[in-house]
Protein: Aminopeptidase P family protein
Amino acid sequence: MTEIIFTEHDRLEIGADEYRLRRERVFQLLQDRQLDAICVFGPTRVAYLSGFFFSPTERPIALVLTAGGAVAALLPNLELSHFQQQGPQLDDSAVYPEYPGGGSGRHPMLFLRELLSRLGVLGKVIAADVDGYEHRWGYRGPALSAVLDQSVQADVALIDDLRMVKSAAEIALMTEACRWGDHAHRLMQDSIRVGSEELLISHGASLQATRDLLAELGGRYVPKAREGLPANAMFIRGSNTAHPHGLHEAGAVQARDVLVTGAYGVVGGYESELERTMIVGEPDDRFRRFFAAMLAAQQVGLEALRPGRSCAEVEAEVRGFIRDELGMDDLVRHHTGHAFGLEGHEHPFLDLDDHTVIEAGMVFSVEPGLYVPEFAGFRHSDTVVITPSGSERLSLYPRELDELVVPVA
Structure:
């Protein structure tokens, strides 16, 4: 559906022109809504608008955009050169020594107030994604509105709504991420044996897939984080899979264990999602029944996705099928899926109470699950992009049962 815009020689990341276009959309949004400026605190939103990826800590960072087209930032001194390396040219900046003050005797948010004053927007109509920096790693700080002594129009949707429909470049990066998530899953599946430790197999496959990615992509791969690997796979097993987000457990894989897996790639900061339900050894009738029901429900979700429908309508169709055709509504623990991109979960959601209209270019997971207490969970998840006429899977790993059986011998 989507033209892949990266050549075999291109670095796999969003380019400066697209970041500039994103900021221009915000400038227009500010003018349309008669807002004089917006302060963006969320690390993912800062990265989305500027290309500045960083490891969030207790030190507040904010990107400021004004209706007049100015770009400015609040930065701790330890991130200044990092921003200069990645981010756009700034019209102004406020650089503070350290949190909570570094000997300055002033909270970092007071530096932001001075920056807004220099930009000529203090006392005018100011918006923000959230009313101040989020509390993480021991950060204690006042709300932006308290620092400015004025109301602030805080609304995460101001930026997040712009992120819902992905560009061709974003979809290309997620398609590449899917390729490596699929590869990590294949390595993991092929490594599982009776007696395997789930943690060791999961991490071993992730590391080997990462080695393969770096060997193939070389300098085209551009890391956007300090932590984690660009290709990952994991699984949980047995009755623990009846918990939709069950944690790892110690112990070895046994014959007849149900496995619920997860795998993903990260390319240019963009993620993929792949999950599969597997079985160790020959599946019995009980397993086959629930597996077939789960697979049928996912197929309903894949076919229900198309532009013009609401997220709630898609969810209602899937839930109706599970309730009326399968008679398994009591086994549902979560909605059918969610959007994602720079984050593993993004707005909107395939949920009965989300009435967002689906558009071409949105990317969703499709993952209706069935959870049988004391037995197992059953869930496939695929990365799906909305096309002009329907949807297209970007994660291409096998979905059928005969390809998801781990041999015992």
